[in-house]
Design brief:
With 498 residues, the chain is of the alpha/beta class. The protein folds into two domains: 87 residues, no CATH class; 302 residues, Aldolase class I (TIM Barrel, Alpha-Beta Barrel), CATH 3.20.20.70. It is 53% helix and 11% strand. The chain has 20 helices and eleven strands. Strand 7, helix 10 and strand 8 form a beta-alpha-beta unit. Helix 3 crosses helix 7. The longest helix is centred in the last third of the chain and has 27 residues. The chain is globular and about 65 Å long.
């Protein structure tokens, strides 16, 4: 097997030298022109994404900027799915459920598999997302995660908008109880960082502060509506010009009691009142949420049995259908969103489109496929499990078997072992990614987003939002120009002297 991993660039000069004749970097204009797309895809992009992920400081920032600028030149740009979902809210399309895929591990390889499946199925309705908690334990900040999306799209020859989403930008109930304003500030900071990186889709999750002990549904949902409206206004104030960031709300915390249409009405009535108050104060219209996440019987990661298998889950598709219909008909939203569904049996996924769900969130099953693929190195898995025993034993619940503990805790090892997983021999990574690609392809077909490219092309306009050029790149290129000018002057003096 191939064991030599792709190494990051060690310096900006080295990076630019490798791109000579392949891509033209123009810091003054803030552009990258890809001169030889074949060579750029064959090798250049691999080293750039390795640098964007594993380098530190200036080289990392320059690599991330070059990837994003090169993507734009190749017809790939970060986009909001808001206008597409609003078209669904108007009834201009129906029964297509967007897969929102949380990529926790082998990120570049996994995203490449998604794009290969998308190209094979003529699909452009899919989102790449990462939750607030996942950002922490996978050690993937927004700039890194977005760079992986752009790089994977470049590598596979995808063209069009890419939808990158902040999933479960969630209020921590514990922190909310001790320092509510500090918790809001932390979420504002993450949201700002994410939008700057190209996350033009943000799911605000204040369902954690729904208080079911209060006597009326309106009172129970008031805090949720207030925070969601607060963040709607905040996002509208910082979103790029020409972009309406897609914002999602949530009325039912995943794993708790099922949502009802009455919950939806209580939340939306309070939310719309709050938003209208903010519009009056701001003196302008504020586009609201485009979708609503609900609970219909699932739990994140599924329920693992003592032998390590996953318990059957009964999703209440009738409730999901009623919630989606109410969201569209009564409020013009795209529909309801289902969380925690990746561990459901394959045959269940067609029911989401039948029920009119606008989006379904999928994470743990793909993580499982990586860990459990025969090509995944057993010694690395053992090392990761030893790490969990030594560092996360406090998460083991009384009576849990090893299979149950490792299943629930192994996501905690993804960040600390990110580099070791990146260095898995390419043949093994290709085998894992090949299996994932088959799963993604099947999902696209069952969720009925295969053949959706024309819908996206019709409803999602291209809006170019250039990222600021890193000062280090500007200085490096300026230094090269000075060096070239000095060399030219010396040559001229030599000629004149002769």
């Amino acid at each position: 097997m191939t064991t030599q991993p792709i190494q990051p660039f060690g310096a900006i000069d080295e990076m630019l030298a490798a791109l000579d004749g392949v891509a033209r970097v123009d810091a003054d204009r803030g552009t990258v022109s890809v001169l030889d797309a074949g060579r750029f895809r064959d090798s250049g992009i691999d080293r750039l994404i390795a640098t964007a992920v594993f380098a530190e400081g200036l080289e990392r920032d320059v690599a991330r900027w070059i990837i994003r600028a090169a993507a734009a030149d190749l017809g790939i740009w970060p986009a909001s799915i808001h206008t597409l979902y609003m078209a669904a809210g108007r009834g201009e399309y129906a029964h297509r459920t967007a897969p929102a895929i949380n990529v926790r591990a082998l990120t570049y390889d996994t995203m490449r598999a998604v794009f290969r499946a998308a190209l094979a199925n003529d699909c452009k309705i899919m989102l790449f997302e990462l939750a607030r908690s996942e950002t922490s334990y996978t050690q993937q900040r927004p700039g890194e995660y977005a760079s992986n999306v752009f790089a994977a799209a470049i590598k596979e020859g995808f063209r069009g908008p890419v939808f990158i989403q902040g999933d479960h930008y969630q209020i921590s109930l514990k922190k909310w109880g001790t320092d509510a304003e500090g918790e809001l500030d932390a979420l504002r900071d993450l949201t700002t960082e994410a939008i700057a990186a190209g996350y033009f889709n943000i799911d605000v999750d204040a369902s954690t502060i729904v208080d079911l002990s209060l006597p009326t549904l309106a009172e129970q949902q008031q805090g949720n509506a207030h925070v969601t409206a607060t963040f709607t206004q905040f996002i509208r104030e910082i979103e790029p010009e020409g972009v309406t960031v897609s914002i999602g709300g949530e009325i039912g915390e995943v794993g708790l009691r099922n949502s009802t249409v009455q919950d939806l009405h209580a939340f939306m009535n309070a939310y719309m009142t709050e938003l209208q108050d903010r519009e009056r104060m701001a003196g302008r219209n504020l586009a609201g949420i485009s979708k609503i996440s609900v609970q219909t019987g699932t739990s994140h990661g599924g329920v693992v049995l003592p032998d390590g298998s996953i318990a059957d889950v009964a999703v209440d598709f009738q409730t999901l259908k009623e919630l989606s219909e109410a969201a569209r008909v009564d409020y013009g939203l795209g529909g309801a969103v289902q969380h925690g569904a990746s561990t459901l049996p394959e045959e269940a996924f067609g029911h989401f489109a039948d029920a009119g769900a606008i989006e379904v969130h999928l994470a743990t099953a793909f993580q499982n496929q990586i860990f459990e693929n025969p090509a995944f190195p057993g010694d690395l898995r053992d090392e990761m499990y030893t790490y969990l025993d030594q560092n996360h034993a406090d998460e083991r619940k009384e009576g849990q078997t090893d299979a149950q503990f490792y299943y629930g805790a192994r996501k905690r090892a993804l960040g600390p072992f990110k580099r070791q997983m990146w260095d898995i021999p390419v043949e093994a990574r290709d085998q894992i990614a090949g299996a994932l690609e088959q799963s993604f392809s099947l999902l696209m077909q069952r969720l009925r987003v295969a053949g959706s490219a024309d819908l996206v092309d019709r409803f999602v306009p291209r809006v170019d939002v250039p990222a600021p050029v890193p000062q280090a790149l500007t200085q490096t290129l300026a230094g090269e120009k000075v060096h070239a000018m000095v060399g030219a002057e010396e040559t001229l003096e030599e000629v004149e002297g002769e």
